[in-house]
Amino acid sequence: MESDVLILPPKDIARLAQAVASRASGKPVRIALLRDAESRKAMGPMPIFPGIEILAFDLDTDGAFADFDISTQSARIAAEMEAGVQAFLAANRPDVVVEATGRALTGAMVCQAALESGYPVVSLNPRTDLAVGHYLRHLAHEKGLRYVFWQPDSVRAALDLKEALEASGLEIVSLGATLPASGAGEQPLSDADISAVMIEMACLANATGISLDRPGMNGQHCRPEELAGFYRPLEEGGIFAVPCCVDYAVLDGLPAGVYAVAKAQETEGKSTAYRTHFTPLSSCAHSWLAALAEVLEDGAKTPDLAYRPVADVCAIALRDVKPGERLAGAGAADYRGIAMRVDEIRWRESIPIGLLEGAMAKQIIEPDEPIVLENCVIDHTSRLYALRGLQEKLRLAS
């Protein structure tokens, strides 16, 4: 289904139009959009853009990984899906593959299959990029292709704010998202809100190389004018144990947006001043089209292999999980996300959420208890687990 409405900033419309017009062949750009039922609903009707042809392929992932026998069926399910993806790509021969599923496992399979088949990839899936983005960048480099992860709106807005402030000569001590307060008390956000912001801020940490202050971050709930008083180093009267970090805040009276706390330019004889810079978030339904321009403009450019993940998202149980019980996948009510530094994940033996699809409890896991290797067994036969192993080898080699 197509839509006559295009929701895209003017600068991105101009950039994409120029990239399409510059193609030597003069033929339409064929986009293979691979998605699942959830992303199909979220994305809505496909926009019409001159010179672009969108070919949609819907993957049936509903419940596919919720209750399977991890010893036998995981590899079979992944192989069947991969065969379907490869057949679709071979029949349509697109110029770019856009991966828009919501699961880490499905997204990893789609991205790997597309790159192995010789197609550049744009991923809209933060769960996949958190799980195996480092490996996918290296695979694209080996194939002479592009792998572009199109960041969530909040991450791209924070990156723009960071660039503007640093160009002004300001030193940033904290960067992240702000959420509007939805109620009184210590916990105004839903578990879904918390998981979403954990994923987005882990992506921001990886995009900037700026790590986290503590597991789960701080999530200070305050008035906007109070934020700079909290989000500064301990020695300056704040709450951070590190000089600079990614975090999020719940601010009274402001809409969703992004913030940066920066040191003001020092004046001789005066103490250091910290100020909060805020930008409201504007979401464009078709912003992912701008990623196509990046691929079309720089088709021969290989990914930045200096990318090193500094954060990931693990899980905390929301309910009692009994021994032998399976954990559901993305969007489940079994657990919520908690962003952590990668070094903490290793020594705590926490399990990244991408690897929890189809995992099974080994012992009772109580509410608010971290899900770790001691109390949970993951699916060692899955494609995602194998790719995660290859990514770990890349990390050790570097």
TrEMBL record:
Domain Oxidoreductase DRL-like catalytic intervals: 193-271
Q: Which UniProt keywords apply?
A: Plasmid
Coiled-coil annotation: which residues?
none
Q: Which Pfam families match?
A: DRL_cat
Report the superkingdom from the record. Bacteria
Name of the molecule in the record: Homoserine dehydrogenase
Q: From which source organism is this entry? A: Paracoccus aminophilus JCM 7686
Traced from the root, the source organism's taxonomic lineage reads: Bacteria, Pseudomonadati, Pseudomonadota, Alphaproteobacteria, Rhodobacterales
